[in-house]
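Notes to self, GDSL esterase/lipase:
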Amino acid sequence: MPSNSPYGSTYFKHPSGRLSNGRLIIDFIAQAYGLPFLPAYKNLIEGQDITKGVNFAFAGATALDFNYFNKSRVALPGINNSLSVQFKMFKRLKPSLCKNKKGFDKDETFKACCGGGGPHNFDPRMGCGSPITTVCSDPSKNINWDGVHFTEAAYKLLAKGLVEGPFAYPSLKPAPFQIV
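result:
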C-alpha cells in the first residue's frame, strides 16, 4: 500500500492494509478482548512482531482459484488472492508464527503434566501420583493433566467459553461473576 494511502487514516494515522479509513469489525473485536491488531500479510516488514498472528484476508479474494474461472470461462478476478494463495502464504509464514520463546515449547503444552515418561509423558501403567511419575512445575502452561484429564487451566478456558461465549448457542444467562 503506498505510503500516502488514505486507508487507515482515521484511526491508525497511516496506511493500515485495511480497506477502510480505520478499523474493521475484527479490530473492534480484538480491542474488546484486549488482543492486538493483526498486521496485514502484504504490509509486513522485516523484523515485525508476528507472534500474535497475521491477517491473510484480501479485498476481492475468491474462494476458488484462477484455474476454476479459466475452465468455466468466467471473468477472472483482478488478482489471484484466492483462498489457496492465502493458504500458501500462511504455510510460508507458519514457521515464524509458531516459534516459541525459550523454555513453555508447544509440544510440552500437550504432554501430560503428571505422568510416567514417554513422548507424551503418559504411561497407563503408571498413574499420576505413583512413585515414579513426575509433575510439571507449572500446570497452568499445560492442557493435559494426567494423559486422560485436562488441567484446571484447560477446564477454565472451556467453562469461560460456555458461560461467557462463544461455545453455547444461544448464549447462557450471564453469570453474576466473571470466571477468573
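- Residues 162 and 168 are 5 Å apart (CA to CA).
- The radius of gyration is 22 Å.
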